[in-house]
């Protein structure tokens, strides 16, 4: 059975230093080679920016739908209210991207561990040779197997939970911004509260 994951590797590295350890230096060396190959595969496959774009294309679609659901004639007829709503959505997206960028190393690590756990050293070399070609890059970008791996899905789900928990800026903040405007019966329109 092959060793997998960095925690297991660290444990085996500690055991390698003990006299009674059954593992050899060749095992640790092979794992280090596999880890380095997996890191190269992930780096060659999809850059952090490309991965972020893949993730956020669906989030952006959801935000467009949210914006449409929040639309009503009063907001659309009053540019200041519409701007407040648009700015709020922009801030939420910016915050979500910041959370993603902070969480990306965990997602990348899960991807690397997937490769180490799944493939032999020779298979990793073949995969790296393939993903380094234009055809290989195209294939990887269109292939969802890595992202469907339970560990990768868990890392992505953790990121999604952090976005949901962030609530920044919050709906309450949006309400406060909108509360800065009142309907003036005299002027027949919304005016900024004084």
From TrEMBL:
Entries under Pfam families matching the protein: DUF2059
InterPro entries xref list: DUF2059
DUF2059 domain location: 115-147
Protein name: DUF2059 domain-containing protein
Signal peptide (from-to): 1-22
UniProt keyword list: Signal
Keyword Signal attached: yes
Domain of life of the native organism: Bacteria
